[in-house]
Amino acid sequence: MIRWGSPEHGGGTTARRAGTRPALGALAGLVGALLGALPVAAAPARYGAPAGCASPVGVHTAGTPWAIELLGPRRVWPLSTGSGVRTAVLGTGVDARNAQFRPGQVEDGRDVLDNSGVATDDCDGRGTFAAGLIAARPHDDTTFAGLAPGVSVLPVRYTQSTTQGNGAVDPDRLAAAIDVAVTARARVIYVVLPATRNTAQLRAATARAIAADIVVVSPATSGPRTQGATSYPTALPGVLAVGAFGPDGAVASTESGDHIGVSAPGRQLLSLSAGANGRLGHSPTVDDPAYAAAYVAGTAALLRSYRPELSAAEVVRRITSTAQRTAVAGHHPQLGWGMVDPYRAVAAEGVEDPPAVAAASAQPVAAAGADRGSDVHPVVLPLASAGLVAALLVGIGTAVTRRGRARGWRPGG
């Protein structure tokens, strides 16, 4: 049986040990119960979003979303909330008027579609959804929160400004968006919508961002039409490429290769909705593996806040080195070095070597002081029980292996 386990490299041990191996039937019941809590409460009033634009379906008041249960940000927040880290969200803009963004948290940003206006509205909605996974602050009236609620968000719009949909991404406009983030001195760049074509402009802009010591995070492609495709800047040197899996453990992204660094939840996700008009407002659950990269970008922001002395390359190495491995050693072509682990990435010691050359170790995680710049509410998301997290990890590893065998790959191959 394949399971997610401890990394085979130097670094701290994790509190999430799979002490038991429940049958997948029992796991399905646990996951089903968790997902059954996902529907949001009915909206008490209309939000007033423009016709054809994204708008909330209500406020999420049920159980903690499964991805948050799995990643456990509450463990990290006493150490870091990402405060002081400007995180650029490159996509369709970010609607700053959702009440789970603190005042001023979403900066004006820039619209590079026509080089006019700011990017603090978002008709399409995907940029706001992505930013919420990273930056939504805890709120008494909802059980949803982002991974790094202390960050500041720099929205840069380069696609889909007026209508919802999946129009092709112009790689040169994406290159211009990356340059905006570099000029604004972002410390993390999250590309929400990568391009399927590579150009000289995109290569050059990505290289400038890497040279400027910025962590660039980009998702792997997904969907039947992208089977076997490569996305950009995801596949470019120095970029932290992110694969995805769902709550059933199945691989959710189709892009594969040595460039995939880590993986994160990418199905059955909910987040903030655009069009909330100053209130709380959440989306329905969506399946889009591109959002897995938001959790990795949030982890990078947590790490850059807590360990500001680390270079971007060192941040990437820590994230890949502390990822939760499967029991089978080696790099997975669609999941990279394993599932991102925000707490280990921030708190573990002795993990600076790349995972391919790091030696096995059982070093403990060193004690660390709290991030006193945090404004996170003291009563936040409930902690996931160790048994549930272990069960989810076991199930993910098993289902990933079964799906992989059906597709003809072998873990570590």
TrEMBL record:
The chain crosses the membrane at residues 379-400. Residues 82-338 form the Peptidase S8/S53 domain. InterPro entries: Peptidase_S8/S53_dom, Peptidase_S8/S53_dom_sf, Peptidase_S8_subtilisin-like, Peptidase_S8_subtilisin-rel. One of its GO terms (biological process) is proteolysis. Keywords: Hydrolase, Membrane, Protease, Serine protease, Transmembrane, Transmembrane helix. The keyword Membrane applies. It holds the Pfam family Peptidase_S8. This is Subtilase family protein. Belongs to the peptidase S8 family. It comes from Micromonospora pallida. Gene3D superfamilies: Peptidase S8/S53 domain. One of its GO terms (molecular function) is serine-type endopeptidase activity.
